[in-house]
Amino acid sequence: MSVQAATPGPLTVRTIEVDPPSDLLAVLPHGGMSWVRRGEGMVAWGEVARLDTTGASRIDEADAWWRRISRHAVVRDDVQAPGTGLIAFGSFAFADSSAAGGALVIPRYVLGVRGDDAWLTVISEDGHSAVPTLAEATAGVTPAGPMPHVSIEPGDRAAWGEAVTHAVTRIGAGELDKVVLARAVHATANSPIDVRPVLTRLAQDYETCWTFHVDGLVGATPELLARVDHGLVTSRVLAGTIRPTGDETADLAHAAALARSSKDLEEHEYAVQSVTQVLTTHCGSVNVPDAPSVLHLPNVMHLATDVTGVLSHNASALELIRELHPSAAVCGTPTLTAASVIDELEGLDRGRYAGPVGWINAAGDGEWCIGLRSAEINTNDPTRLRLFAGCGIVAASEPDSEWAESEAKLEPMRRALSA
């Protein structure tokens, strides 16, 4: 159910070329949104309109709301690059029953960089088309202060081990093939969290990931749920994980072992199949590599497969993520059974962790990832937050190794919060 389903009149949108900033995140005002990878992407601030949704139809409602707004917007775009013109940022809860729901936010200003292009977009609801300079748009922006001290709880290892053991038992009994269990770690800061130094640290440490902040969800995710760009769809599937040692020679051997691991290959194949099945219904052709590659990150190595397809009809990015979510990479197989087991064993509301997060433009193109390696800042108390990590559980899973994997996945946010 939507909380606010309308916006005040047709929007006026103007995108102009600007000189590229040396660092996108350095321009971001306090509380702004970010979508940055390898130094490119977008930062945004201000709020022209938003839709808050809850329940099973949250993404459908957002898609319908966005189509109405896009249809009536007046757009003048001098750059014509992915991310220019009218766009909105969004994040959605993992579960239909979550109190976190979802939100689609239309910002006032968007500053973007992609290749040789740099742009400033101004979105107005009052019909004014005058475009300020970048200096005027960022007037009054104060630099981020030092990170406050953040106390992070260690988590309940015994409860985690019990949940993994129960999951393996149910898999062994034939109830399901795979389930992804998550754990939440609570943290408290001695003053309200300013996400800007957190984002800067994440972008520096994980430049190949998408460093994001949307509506209180902050992180650096390696997993692309769906990119839609002029009819081409790409989804990056990650499942199967090992922790690097820091020794280059040893890690090459570990990567080779991961690529041969029957346990990890089984987990990965479930995730690839769940994405491929959805894309096949929307695409005239789908390409799936014969074998996964190994994605190397500072904290973990993943089995990775990039699934691509060519759309056979005009499907928006929101339409696709509604069907792709939740994939086996964050839920399990079969999906409905795994979701039920998650409800029984996890003992937490994931909120927007492992839900879709990203952006969409007026044409329905956009880039949406899975909100992993993330933390959710408490809306009512910005000194409190939850850090999340999840692991795919299959028949061969062991509680101690899954605990170690979850600790590795918590490392990006722990490190960023201790900057």
What labels would you give this structure?
13-stranded mixed sheet, alpha+beta, disordered N terminus, single chain, Anthranilate synthase
Topology:
Blueprint lengths: L11 E6 L6 H4 L5 E5 L2 E6 L3 E5 L4 H15 L1 E4 L9 E6 L9 E5 L2 E6 L2 E8 L9 H4 L12 E3 L4 H16 L5 E12 L5 H11 L4 E5 L2 E5 L2 E6 L2 E11 L5 H13 L1 H21 E5 L5 E4 L4 E11 L5 H8 L7 E2 L1 H11 L10 E6 L4 E5 L3 E4 L6 E10 L5 H19 L2
Parallel strand pairs: 1-5
Antiparallel strand pairs: 1-9, 2-3, 2-12, 3-8, 4-7, 6-7, 6-20, 8-9, 10-11, 11-19, 11-23, 12-13, 13-22, 14-15, 14-21, 15-18, 16-18, 17-18, 20-21, 22-23
Helix pairs in contact: 2-8, 4-10, 5-10
Written account of the structure:
The chain is α+β, with helices and mostly antiparallel strands. It has a single domain (12-417), classed as Anthranilate synthase. It has helices spanning 24-27, 58-72, 134-137, 157-172, 195-205, 248-260, 262-282, 317-324, 335-345, 399-417; strands at 12-17, 33-37, 40-45, 49-53, 74-77, 87-92, 102-106, 109-114, 117-124, 150-152, 178-189, 210-214, 217-221, 224-229, 232-242, 283-287, 293-296, 301-311, 332-333, 356-361, 366-370, 374-377, 384-393. Strands 1, 2, 3, 5, 8, 9, 10, 11, 12, 13, 19, 22 and 23 form a 13-stranded mixed β-sheet that branches. Strands 4, 6, 7, 14, 15, 16, 17, 18, 20 and 21 form a 10-stranded antiparallel β-sheet that branches. A hairpin with a 4-residue loop joins strand 17 and strand 18.
